[in-house]
Amino acid sequence: MVSEDNVIEDSASVEDDFDGDDYDYDDGGDYYDDDYGDAGDDDDDYGLVEDDDVDDPGAMVSRRPKLGYTVLQEADIKQRQEDDISKVSTVLSLSQVEATILLRHYNWNVNEVHDEWFSDEERVRKSVGLFERPVVDVSDASEFTCGICFDLLPCDNFASASCGHPFCRECWQGYICTSINDGPGCLLLRCPEPSCKAAVGPDMIDKLAPCEEKEKYSQFLLRSYIEDNREAKWCPAPGCENAVNFAVGGGDFDVTCLCSYRFCWNCTVEAHRPVDCETVTKWMLKNSVDGENVNWILHNSKTCPKCKRPIEKNQGCMHMTCTPPCSYEFCWLCLRAWSSHGLATGGFYSCNVYEAEMQKGNVDAEMRREMAKNSFEKYTHYYERWASNQSSREKALEDLNRMESENMEKLCNVQCTTMSQLKCITEAWLQIVECRRVLKWTYAYGYDLPEHEKTKTQFFEYLQGEAEAGLERLHRCAEKELDKYVTADGPLSDFDDFRTKLTGLTSVTKTYFENLVRALENGLEDVNSTACNKIVSPRSPASPRSPTGRNGKGRGSRGKESPRAGGSPKNVDDTSK
């Protein structure tokens, strides 16, 4: 087995590989460079906890940045909404109801409300529906005829908005309840009078709506504060009611909710850094079932020349018969009527017509079908690995939670150690979880790489292969090798050696992923093509994913093998026979 000293030296070796003259990277550095946001140096380590944070249960899954965004719970949202209403009410000398209507109309933008109001108050009142005085004076009447049900009722059975148009309470209630049950459009409710644009505010809802509808209206009003706000979005995790207020322009859109769900604030898909949102959107669209069904049909079936229904060939004979009521008989190869086939066309299992067309280059449909098949196979290759890393990440999260809730205390007792000495185990699992996420999205990145950019593709596959191989070694060590220390009957003498080894593997894996992420965020543009040619030598028998051409003796390798992504490399945790 390679010693732990070699593990630590390998970590330094990896840094030498990427910090030398052959590459255009800065020395050292964190996982993400300084071009992304002003969240401070504490946030550059791609979301994992530092050593000092491991004892904090709230930071076990993901360390939350201290700047750049704020997670808002329901009470926080209500407080901010009330503060904005009070601010507008005070500055413009309006009632709370009028301030609420104004803010809702201008998407809760306080500054825009102030600017528009002081620019042209009359125009704003007219567009929003805030009347300074009623347009209908009914103060002297003792009874009215409702404009909806046409009943003559006493004045105390009537209500009106700021315009003064009187309608009976029963009709108002029906009008309001119907609007609320129709959805958030009730927040823009106007007077029932067809020619009137007076706004119906929360005071009318509180006065006339039943309790159930009042609660719905309050929820619509609360949610509008987030949904109409350009700087806030709801957490997309199922069942989470939190929102995230983001400092637009920060650059790094990855945020972590209080529910521990990490997502991209820009596109609300799960966190996918270092892959950009456009690539993720195209990848998720590609993953849609309908799109891939079409691809499968294209390369596994042909359409009947008569009825145009797709047909899958399930026997060896070229004589095809479409299902009733069509029942058309045709040749699978040339798609012409079978009645024209026989000895003249080459026999039962052959078709000279098809072969002749192939020689002339006229079989465009076949070429398109072959291209669709190749495209589908490429997609399948990347999708399987994308999905596999997603499954591995979910399993790693389960293992992390089980380790924290069940095995850590047991390990302390069995190995006669302290929790502080077991930080390396938690750190390793956190590293695995995060690296699985990054690795998953690199397959979406790889699928989107243009095929003609061979140099970029080779360098990407090299970095991805190195990172993946390092991650597999770390995952195996944390998952398999740790188990014997947990289930042991007593303390084992080599437990300290295991902790040193696990720490070294964690450091090596982190370095690999730092290099991978840095390269992808730079669009692989800073890679020197000469360096790439050195990495993947044409004379090397290895594939781009397994660049063994250096034979472990390249610059900075110090005579040791660097991690590989394929073949049968000598891993740092292999046991000598």
Concise account of the structure shown:
One of its GO terms (biological process) is protein ubiquitination. Its cofactor is Zn(2+). The protein has helices at residues 4-19, 74-92, 96-105, 110-119, 121-128, 169-181, 202-208, 211-227, 277-286, 289-300, 352-360, 364-415, 423-448, 454-481, 483-486, 495-521, 529-535, and strands at 69-72, 143-145, 152-154, 158-159, 167-168, 232-234, 243-246, 254-256, 262-264, 301-303, 310-312, 319-321, 329-331.
Describe the model.
- There is one protein chain.
- The N terminus and C terminus are likely disordered.
- The chain has 577 residues and is mainly α.
- A hairpin with an 8-residue loop joins strand 6 and strand 7.
- It is extended, with a radius of gyration of 34 Å.
- The chain has 17 helices and 13 strands.
- Helix 2 packs across helix 3, helix 4 crosses helix 5 and helix 13 packs antiparallel against helix 14.
- Pathway: Protein modification; protein ubiquitination.
- Its EC number is 2.3.2.31.
- InterPro entries: ARIH1-like_UBL (IPR048962), E3_UB_ligase_RBR (IPR031127), IBR_dom (IPR002867), TRIAD_supradom (IPR044066), Znf_RING (IPR001841), Znf_RING/FYVE/PHD (IPR013083).
Q: Strands across the major sheet, in which order?
A: 1-7-6
Counting helices, strands and paired strands, the structural category is mainly alpha
Order of helices and strands: HEHHHHEEEEHHHEEEEHHEEEEHHHHHHH
What is the correct CATH architecture of the domain at 288-355 and 368-526? Answer: Up-down Bundle
Q: What is the overall silhouette?
A: extended
Q: How many beta-strand elements?
A: 13
Proportion of β residues? 5-15%
Average predicted local confidence, pLDDT:
75
What is the CATH fold-level name of the domain at 288-355 and 368-526?
Four Helix Bundle (Hemerythrin (Met), subunit A)
Q: Helical amount among residues, as a percent range?
A: 40-55%
First-to-last CA distance = 9 Å
Rg over alpha carbons: 34 Å
Name of the top-level CATH class of the domain at 288-355 and 368-526: Mainly Alpha
The description of the largest β-sheet is: 3 strands, antiparallel
Number of H/I helices: 17
Identify low-pLDDT runs.
1-66, 529-577
